[in-house]
Design brief:
Radius of gyration of chain A: 13 Å
Radius of gyration of chain B: 13 Å
Largest interface: A-B, 21 and 28 residues
Order of helices and strands of chain A: EEEEEEEEE
Structural class of chain A: mainly beta
Helix content of chain B: under 10%
Number of strands of chain B: 11
Largest sheet of chain A: 5 strands, mixed
Helix content of chain A: under 10%
Shape of chain A: globular
Low-confidence stretches of chain A: none
Strand order of the largest sheet of chain A: 1-9-8-3-4
Distance between the termini of chain A: 35 Å
Distance between the termini of chain B: 32 Å
Strand content of chain A: over 45%
Oligomer: heterodimer
Order of helices and strands of chain B: EEEEEEEEEEE
């Protein structure tokens, strides 16, 4: 079973920031939080990951709470092309674990 | 060329037929995975391989088999296809080392069993 909980869907206006929440209350100390997205029926695409510090890259920012039980993916200026299903996954690097995908959250960016 | 290439992209086959889906990668990754996705659902792991001599079952391996022919090639076979194997199939690769930045997925194979 997926170790994360996400709302099933969210809408956002084009040009505004999209804040995508994720709960992972049972995360363990060596598990990272990963975000992927899947546009239409394409293969999932890696967005960002983090352990406990906030992270930013060219696609998004990841804010992880101090207790690490939840996180927020931020798309600073959402575009129509950001409409996708977003998956929040907890994962232990380098071990024998595999990515376990839940149902994710459908983000719809509206014009 | 894509880092992870899946063939065919689309396939329609009849119940009872054997079919092979192929995956090749140019990432140089040791780990390869096969997932299936059904409408409205997330991806479910079928089989995975951490190196050429390693094959492991995922959560839904029944009715499927795999072959890791080389570091770069990982094939998925349906021995006797049935309609509920109609789905979108994805191959993925990853590097297990430090600095791991996630899985790289192929574009998928849409399989229809009639």
């Amino acid at each position: 079973d997926a170790k994360t909980t996400q709302p099933p869907s969210m809408d956002c206006a084009e040009g505004r920031a999209a804040n995508l929440p994720c709960n992972h209350s049972t995360i363990s100390g060596n598990e990272y939080v990963y975000w992927y997205r899947q546009i239409h029926s394409q293969g999932p695409q890696y967005i960002i990951h983090g352990l406990k510090n906030n992270e930013t890259n060219e696609m998004a920012s990841l804010i992880i709470t101090e207790d690490r039980k939840s996180s927020t993916l931020i798309l600073p200026h959402a575009t129509l092309r950001d409409t996708a299903v977003y998956y929040c996954i907890v994962y232990s690097q380098g071990g024998s674990e595999k990515l376990v995908f839940g149902k994710g959250m459908k983000l719809t960016v509206n014009p | 060329d894509a880092d992870v290439t899946q063939t065919p992209r689309n396939r329609i086959t009849k119940t009872g037929k054997r079919i092979m889906l192929e995956c090749s990668q140019t990432k140089g990754h040791d780990r390869m995975y096969w997932y299936r996705q059904d409408p409205g659902l997330g991806l479910r792991l079928i089989y995975y391989s951490f190196d050429v001599k390693d094959i492991n079952k995922g959560e839904i391996s029944d009715g499927y088999s795999v072959s890791r022919q080389a570091q770069a090639k990982f094939s998925l076979s349906l021995e006797s296809a049935i309609p509920n194997q109609t789905a979108l199939y994805f191959c993925a690769t990853s590097d297990a080392g430090i600095g791991f930045y996630g899985y790289t997925f192929g574009s998928g194979t849409r399989l229809t069993v009639v």
